[in-house]
Amino acid sequence: MSNDEFVELLKGLNTKVTPARLAILSVFDKSDGHLSIDDIYLLAKKEISNLGIATTYRTVKLLADAGIIEKHNFDGCD
User: Fold this and answer.
1) CA distances for 3 relative to 9, 21, 54, 65, angstroms
2) Which of 19, 64, 70, 71 is found 20 to 30 A from 77 (Cα to Cα)?
3) How many CB atoms lie within 10 A of CB 45?
């Protein structure tokens, strides 16, 4: 997806378009497998150095609640 498509996706969710959210969406777009929250955080942090883990959790929840991604728990972990 292009950056413009990510922006439109976030606008469609009636949520703020932030560099952190765009970076997290980019991580998902580039991935071809399962990612843990830590994986997402570390990969997105390469683009947004001041990214917080809480922002990562909130964005993943937002995307999962919207049905854009699927969230799975393995071994009782979030």
Assistant:
1) 10, 11, 23, 21
2) 19
3) 17
pLDDT beneath 50, residues of the chain: none
DSSP helix/strand/coil, 51: coil
Give the pLDDT score at 46: 96
Give CA–CA dist 64/75, Å, rounded. 19
Radius of gyration for the chain, computed over Cα atoms and rounded to the nearest angstrom: 12
pLDDT at site 78: 54
Using N-to-C axis directions, what is the helix angle for 37-45 and 53-65, rounded to 10°?
Answer: 120
Tell me how far apart the alpha carbons of residues 45 and 26 are, in angstroms, rounded to a whole number.
Answer: 11
Please tell me the pTM assigned to this model: 0.81
